[in-house]
Amino acid sequence: xxxxxxxxxxxxxxxxxLILLLLPKSYSFELLADCDSSVPESDVDLLEFPLNLExxxxxFFLYGSLGYGLDIVAPNLTKGGPPPIGARRxxxxxxxxxxIKQFALQEVGHLRAIQKKVRGFPRPLLDLSAASFAxxxxxxxxxxxxxxxxxxxxxxxxxxxxxxxxxxxxxGYVGANPKLQGATSKRLVAGLLGVESGQDAVIRALLYERAxxxxxxxxxxxxxxxxxxxxxxxxxxxxxxxxxxxxxAPGKGAEGKSIGNVLAGDRDSLAYDRTPEExxxxxxxxxxxxxxxxxxxxxxxxxxxxxxxxx
Length: 311
Description:
With 311 residues, the protein is mostly helical. The chain is built from 13 helices and two strands. The protein is 54% helix and 1% strand.
């Protein structure tokens, strides 16, 4: 005969299951699987931090290629975070639109893959307006460009703006990998790094093909734009040379035998690494991980980023 204790236990179990069934699918899933138990606690922050960059890439590529973002494509991945500011569809030729759309969908997969392993956090407020990119470009050149640079105005402008994004995340994954303890964590980061590196390589190759082309109406070559962008990121990161444009000085290319620099790498052609702090200094646009700005007007999310805002 069932005891009062077993009856109460069964009743609670049935009630809990009913609640989960009645909740929206996204909520019930989160309650059942907030994170992967195979991920060590020491790895969680390092896996969550890149979500900030993945949100940025996903929204920029989705809006640029399709004219809408995660709120339409995968609203559950935003976890209720605010929609981006100023993002819009870019004027892209058919080929470039196809490439960027593929990048966009890959970023959706990245967000989902990370959120399967760790709980994550809501999408941070992102400023993807033309004015936000123009500020970065003006900082890179040390003067205002006239008219202001608009990443959405043409395929070339959009590719130049895209040069600013995947590479930062790529260096972050390189930096995080040796600090991770779990095999699951390392496998995830290796997979993310592989595709991020591919995206960066495609962007750089498309721009390298146009290296000597002058960007209208500025009369500045594509190569000069990339060199200025890389110099700015080195300056903001405060950790020396970790970024290179498409054309380098004699002796600075691969094995010291090339001025062409379609892929960035150190003297042994290995990828550069960055810490979360270096990344925040760059994406905030001011060289200080404690002061939000740039693409993240209210700061990035997650324990690592928020700890610097409270310092």
